[in-house]
Write a structure and sequence with these properties.
The protein is an alpha/beta fold and 355 residues long. 35% of the residues lie in helices and 16% in strands.
């Protein structure tokens, strides 16, 4: 089977999930995969070795400033003519199946050509009634139209009674109890963020901030690095991050306490924050500042540890065997393998069992 696999490159979570899928798909030589990435300029992509001779297209992305989506700047940078041209010219008929991880060029090219398509990723969980901001019909409509697919496998931290899969998130390193707090807030005003962190006595390792910014003695700024980030994550005392799906799933697998702020105006992250609150898996705040961090640490937060199954391997096997199971059957089998392994009874207190 020849598969064209499109990945939205705007956030690192999509690419992280794709790396796991690439390793899993390589175990099935009958599946021939051509990768395509969009949404981020090619010079800013890193750790792309698992994808071989991948294709790149401009695609669509959002502009973020100061922790919010800048709608005007987003509209200005759109290039609809190039997008339409890329959709029309993509040779999707050369493939048996198109998989999209919220990537619009492959999704719309397959829809236009009538090629079988599968949506794979967190965004497709929003096809069901899951926690999300109310009355935001426009954001929901945009999400559903962004990268449509005939069939989908959505993912979330909980199934909410729907055929939704667990996350693709397995730790690269064993958890350790270090002294540092890992901070990954790529969409924030980094100058202000570093000033707030400098007011605290704790040691912070900060990813996503320009390394040329002045940093206090308790701050260590680090450039993007797959293995380095994973090591610092596994050994962190706690994690401060935005409300993206993949990083929080990995942090839950390690059992680290989480302080999170959703990106303002971003429907997915605001919905994620609502789910985290309902499941009591993290502390959600409207802003990241020294006062809020100090208050959170004074409460001596403990993490909820969840052992996710090998979701990527199961999906690859499902594809290789001809997708004989329904999405619901695949999801049920995977949720049976989830091990809560809770460090606290916080999740039990919600009345929602994760298993």
């Amino acid at each position: 089977m020849k598969i064209l696999y499109g990945v939205q490159g705007t956030g690192n979570g999509h690419i992280s999930r794709a790396r796991a899928m690439a390793r899993a798909l390589q175990s099935h030589p009958q599946l021939q995969v051509q990768w395509l990435f969009s949404g981020r300029s090619p010079e800013k992509l890193f750790g792309m070795e698992p994808f071989g001779d991948y294709w790149w297209r401009e695609g669509l992305t959002f502009v973020h400033r100061g922790g919010r989506i800048d709608q005007l700047a987003t509209a200005r940078q759109l290039n609809p003519r190039q997008l339409i041209r890329d959709i029309r010219e993509l040779p999707v008929r050369d493939f048996d199946l198109m998989i999209t991880d919220f990537e619009p060029v492959t999704a719309w090219a397959a829809k236009r050509a009538g090629v079988p398509s599968l949506g794979l990723g967190h965004q497709y969980a929003f096809n069901f009634a899951i926690p999300a901001p109310r009355f935001n019909w426009m954001a929901r409509a945009i999400m559903r139209a962004f990268a449509p697919a005939q069939h989908s496998l959505g993912m979330h931290w909980y199934h909410f009674g729907h055929p939704i899969l667990p996350p693709i998130a397995q730790p690269h390193h064993s958890p350790d109890n270090g002294e540092h707090i890992l901070v990954y807030l790529p969409f924030e005003n980094h100058s202000q963020l570093l000033k707030e962190l400098a007011r605290l006595p704790q040691r912070f390792i900060v990813y996503g901030a320009p390394e040329e910014l002045p940093a206090a003695d308790n701050l260590e700024l680090k450039a993007p690095s797959i293995d380095g980030f994973q090591r610092d994550l596994a050994s962190a005392r706690a994690v401060i991050c935005n409300s993206g799906f993949e990083l929080i799933a990995e942090t839950l697998a390690l059992g680290k306490p989480i302080l999170t702020r959703p990106l303002s105006g971003q429907f997915e992250q605001e919905a994620n924050a609502r789910a985290l609150n309902e499941l009591q898996l993290a502390t959600v705040v409207p802003a990241i500042d020294a006062t809020g961090i100090r208050r959170w640490l004074d409460c001596q937060p403990t993490g909820v540890q969840i052992q996710w199954p090998d979701v990527a391997g199961s999906i690859a096997q499902w594809l290789a065997s001809g997708r004989q199971q329904t999405a619901g059957e695949l999801a049920d089998g995977l949720w049976e393998q989830v091990v809560p392994g809770r460090r606290t009874n916080a999740v039990e207190a919600t009345g929602v069992a994760l298993d």
